[in-house]
Every structure is written in structure tokens, then in C-alpha cells.
Amino acid sequence: MPTESHGIAPARPTATGQRRPxxxxxxxxxxxxxxxxxxxxxxxxxxxxxxxxxLDAFRTHHVLVIRDQHLDKARLADFAGIFGEVEGxxxxxxxxxxxxxxxxxxxxxxxxxxxxxxxxxSNFNWHTDKAYQAVPSLLTMLLALExxxxxxxxxxxxxxxxxDALSEATKAEIAGLKVVHSFEHMRxxxxxxxxxxxxxxxxxxxxxxxxxxxxxxxxxxxxxxxxCSHIEGMDATASRAMLDRLLAHATEPxxxxxxxxxxxxxxxxxxxxxxxxxxxxxxxxxxxxxxxRVVVKGTVPV
Length: 302
Fold this sequence. Notes:
21% of the residues lie in helices and 24% in strands. It is an alpha+beta fold.
């Protein structure tokens, strides 16, 4: 099992003079959200005890940072498979080819070069991945391949802590409400590229509870973000005001962990109880930012 600390003991010689592998260490982040994991090389076969420890750390901390990992697409997919079924894609790249299950996300424009107006700029808005699907994702992994000299951060907001901090009156007000999540709404509201006919057909609006119960922890969390079109049965103006107010509350600094990327960082997070966004705090049109991405399928929110 892992140790909870802020350091890791070096490998020790055995009686035969061989060195034992360093122990997996899980160190909680100072702000309370997320943990760093050291003492593991994911390019090698993962020991059973480390597999169990990683699953436990993910359930506890919801964001895991594992630095200095050198993985190809196949190995990243294998690691993601520890957490569940790797999810394929229905969308296509700028050249028309289908996006692979393990793929790259970049700050490139349609011409393949760094751009201040990248191909998918909606990533700069708070969201939980694939909430527009009837069965949204469980987790997402990103592996840093190319980074700007500074900036290009990713932020995560804790939707469980945000729910807990609501007044009892607000909790009662939002209990049982259902929200329509729409991929098309997201594209229109963020000013991102319009959907193709095939994308529109593949992503009809879906409905999820505004407050979902985490299937592993049993705790309640807000389930909102840029895909939220409206609250069912509520006046459109009042609906938008409530969704905006809740998201503003949930993304206050006290609920946020900001990840400052280093080369070969692997970061994985729980889409069931977090929202995240990329931060455009670098010269997008000048510096390349390339990360390898894979998503694990989740369950229907309840």
C-alpha cells in the first residue's frame, strides 16, 4: 500500500545486493484537492499492490499527478484500462479522419500551427468531459508531450467541496433538478466551430441531475459546466442565472487546484466530481502545446 508523505525513500539494497524498487508514495496537494504519486514507472508492468494503491488514491484525491512518465499510445491505453473501459471517439480531426481513442490535443489552428484561435477553443471554459453523452466519462488522462516555456496550465475545481459549501436553503432549492446538456449549445455559447451534420446527429441533448451522487464515495456534487443548456421546467432566464451562479461559486479559488505542467507529466482526474479548463496564460500563436489524451467511460449519473 502507498505511504502518505511528501518524500520517497530511495531503493534499499537487499541481502543479495540487489536494489528493491522504490515504494509508491502518494502525497496530498497542500490545497486539499489532488495528490502527486512518485516511485512508479508506468512504462513497466504495474505491480498488483501499486494498481490497488493507485485506484485507492484516485478515489480519495480525484486528481493524480505522476511526473516523468514516458509512454506511447498503447502503453497509455493499457494504463487507462486499469480504471475502466477506454472510450472511442465519434469526432473527426481537421483532415476528416476519425479521432483515435488515444489522441493529441493541441493549441493548433486548422493549418496545424500554433494559433491564438485554436481549432477547439472551448477547452478554455469550465467543463466535465463528455457530459453531453447519456453515459459520460469517468476519468481523463493527459500526458505532456510539448509545452510552452511557461504557462499553459490546467485548472480543476472540486464540485463536492463546492456543493458542501452551499447554504442549506440552496441545497434544498436545487435538490431534484434536472439539467439538459447539449454539445451544440456548448459550441454556440463558447463561439467554437459549428457542429457538422454528423456531429449533430451523434450528440442529441441529454438530461442529467444537477446534483449527482458519486458512485464510489456516495457524496453529493454539482454536475454543471459549459455543456449545460438549461434546467428542465424552469424559465430560461432564471435557469441561466442559476447555472451561472452555481458555476461561479464552484470555481472560486478555494475550490481550485492549478496544475503547472512539466514535460512528461501524466495527470488523471475524476470527471464525475470535478470541472476543469485549460488556461490561455501563454502566447498561443507562438508556442506549441501538445498533450496525449485518453478517456475512460463512466456510468449514468444519478
